[in-house]
């Protein structure tokens, strides 16, 4: 039986129970979960194997790849610059990125970039992991590209392109033209074990992603399936529709998720981890990711009024990429099929999920933050409920 280590306030023992049960039922290889309530750390647990190839155990400071949980950090960086007056969120992108007006995109606003309305959910040509490390070039590709729908006339998850769209706000408008990773670390995560673009020392001790459960010929994480958020649904019709799109190489879903291609080793590829894709490039501990949301909810990163405006849903309903309902504020997910939250948090929770089942979220009304990072890639098409159950246990503890 896997030993779960760390600390847990007795009032939140339900979170520990769910976490241990996930291991006992063979749903985990290695994972960590952290919960803060009222700004106080009440759960900090980890367990299992960080590297299935060597048997290296998961420790207190093991970072794990956060996939699209990264997008919340990128959005926060962009919003901080807006708060400082660097640009107008509802103003035209061409005011600070003139080239973006090509191919009928002159009416695109920064809000469209931040809320998946830009009509650029996928690159028009194949992009390698090495090419993806060149953020200015990838942003230029998107600026020249024709949108798949008129910007602002619908939303569809920009699984990977989001990083080079929202990230360009940071690269062009931050003092020193910093990368998202540099800006985030300089401005609000410098003391946390959180990197968007990690040094080799951090990559070496990070958890290695795998696509197989224990005892079932574990392999490296798949090269595909990059950043799709978990869809915890048991609706057969929904899952059938997703499965069909996922296996169709020409579908918008497939094109959005799998280009750029991460290359050999999938998302364990050091080329990807060093580059720090601003859509899906974060290595972090669950403790650090939850602590980021603590600071965000407490008004230490963005002003409270900035965050209130940012979490208001800008779009909701059928997602042109994901084919299920999604909801987004300015970069943050809001409760929907793609961001499943227990009833107690559906009015005020925000955050972002990531492939394989990871989540980072905050709830200002409940004063609760939760982060969960597994290295076993969950099967979204069968409904990965690990994070949902952990978040549910955290809310249940508040109500007891």
Automatic annotation (TrEMBL):
<feature type="domain" description="Beta-lactamase-related">
    <location>
        <begin position="19"/>
        <end position="381"/>
    </location>
</feature>
<dbReference type="InterPro" id="IPR001466">
    <property type="entry name" value="Beta-lactam-related"/>
</dbReference>
<dbReference type="GO" id="GO:0016787">
    <property type="term" value="F:hydrolase activity"/>
</dbReference>
<feature type="region of interest" description="Disordered">
    <location>
        <begin position="208"/>
        <end position="235"/>
    </location>
</feature>
<keyword id="KW-0378">Hydrolase</keyword>
<dbReference type="InterPro" id="IPR012338">
    <property type="entry name" value="Beta-lactam/transpept-like"/>
</dbReference>
<dbReference type="InterPro" id="IPR052907">
    <property type="entry name" value="Beta-lactamase/esterase"/>
</dbReference>
<dbReference type="Pfam" id="PF00144">
    <property type="entry name" value="Beta-lactamase"/>
</dbReference>
<protein>
    <submittedName>
        <fullName>Serine hydrolase domain-containing protein</fullName>
    </submittedName>
</protein>
